[in-house]
């Protein structure tokens, strides 16, 4: 089934194939701000600070700033490699308007008037909107499946014990396994904590929005993980390693989002 970005007319399969190959789609890339709860962000960026921080305080504000800048850089780099896309840059005189639109939460729907102004000022056929919805912590949407993950994480820790065989490892991992034996909510917390520390999940949502008429023609989400090291569960992870994990998880999430988008482009024509 063909998904049209403009007025559709009857044509032949050959003409459609030629259109797919020759007509680039002009897109404007727009990143929505991170709207993750501050307490979750503090758990990632300032886990050793006891007083509750605000979003504007340096450990969190700097972490959020880097997270968004890195995600945007990786996203734009990946999209420029798509031969059917041309990324447009908004003119300077529209910067205030574009910044206001980019300030919308990912869930906010644009109006047709806003879409028309974006098209008129930039020449874009569509928007590629994306945003980070979870950063360094297991997505809340995964919580429904916590029992299955709890079993997996328990087996993973057991594997560490079997592999190392050290007294210290057995003591720490044994305490972890003991925690796994308590009520379900505690089991879930322990399992998610293990995954958070071992691989720093980063979840990105993205959508492809036609501007005229305003229509969302494709949408996806993906959660990237860093390289998984179970030994992070039994030792302290320093800031540099944590930041590397976060960047790597972001890279993987963006790569999978763009891969999914690339597949969808086969059925999208201007």
Query: What coarse outline follows from CA principal-axis ratios?
Result: globular
Beta-strand segment tally: 7
Helix content: 40-55%
Classification by helices and strands: alpha/beta
Query: Tally the helices: what do you get?
Result: 9
Strand content: 15-25%
The succession of helices and strands, N to C, reads EHEHHEHHEHHHEEHE
What's the N-to-C terminus distance?
A: 14 Å
* Mean of all residue-level pLDDT scores: 80
Low-confidence residue ranges = 1-19, 176-187
Radius of gyration: 22 Å
Strand order in space, largest sheet: 3-2-4-5-6
Q: How would a textbook summarize the main sheet? A: 5 strands, mixed
Task: Give a verbal description of the structure.
By secondary structure, the chain is an alpha/beta fold. 50% of the residues lie in helices and 17% in strands. The strands form two sheets. Strands 3-2-4-5-6 form a five-stranded mixed β-sheet. Helix 2 packs across helix 3. The longest helix is centred in the C-terminal third of the chain and has 26 residues. The relative contact order is 0.16.
Question: What does the secondary structure layout of this molecule look like, with pairings?
Answer:
Layout (H helix, E strand, L loop, with lengths): L2 E2 L8 H10 L2 E7 L6 H8 L12 H23 L4 E3 L7 H8 L9 H11 L3 E10 L10 H19 L2 H14 L3 H16 L2 E10 L2 E11 L14 H26 L3 E2 L1
Parallel strand pairs: 1-7, 2-3, 2-4
Antiparallel strand pairs: 4-5, 5-6
Helix pairs in contact: 2-3, 3-9, 6-7, 6-8
């Amino acid at each position: 089934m063909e998904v049209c970005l403009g007025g559709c007319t009857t044509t032949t399969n050959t003409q459609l194939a030629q259109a797919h190959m020759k007509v680039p789609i002009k897109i404007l890339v727009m990143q929505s701000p991170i709207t993750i709860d501050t307490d979750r962000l503090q758990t990632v960026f300032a886990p050793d600070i006891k007083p509750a921080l605000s979003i504007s305080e340096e450990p969190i504000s700097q972490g959020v700033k880097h997270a968004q800048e890195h995600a945007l850089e990786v996203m734009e780099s990946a999209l420029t490699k798509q031969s059917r896309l041309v990324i447009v840059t908004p003119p300077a005189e529209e910067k205030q308007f574009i910044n206001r639109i980019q300030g919308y939460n990912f869930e906010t729907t644009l109006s047709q008037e806003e879409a028309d102004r974006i098209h008129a000022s930039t020449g874009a056929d569509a928007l590629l909107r994306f945003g980070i919805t979870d950063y360094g912590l297991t997505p809340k949407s995964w919580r429904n499946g916590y029992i299955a993950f709890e079993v997996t994480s328990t087996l993973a820790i057991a594997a560490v014990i079997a592999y190392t065989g050290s007294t210290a490892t057995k003591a720490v991992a044994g305490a972890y396994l003991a925690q796994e034996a308590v009520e379900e909510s505690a089991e879930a917390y322990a399992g998610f904590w293990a995954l958070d520390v071992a691989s720093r999940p980063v979840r990105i949502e993205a959508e492809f929005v036609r501007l005229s008429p305003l229509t969302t023609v494709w949408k996806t989400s993906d959660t990237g993980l860093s390289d998984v090291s179970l030994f992070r569960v039994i030792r302290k992870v320093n800031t540099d390693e944590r930041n590397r994990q976060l960047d790597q998880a972001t890279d993987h999430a963006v790569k999978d989002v763009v891969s999914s988008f690339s597949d969808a482009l086969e059925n999208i024509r201007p």
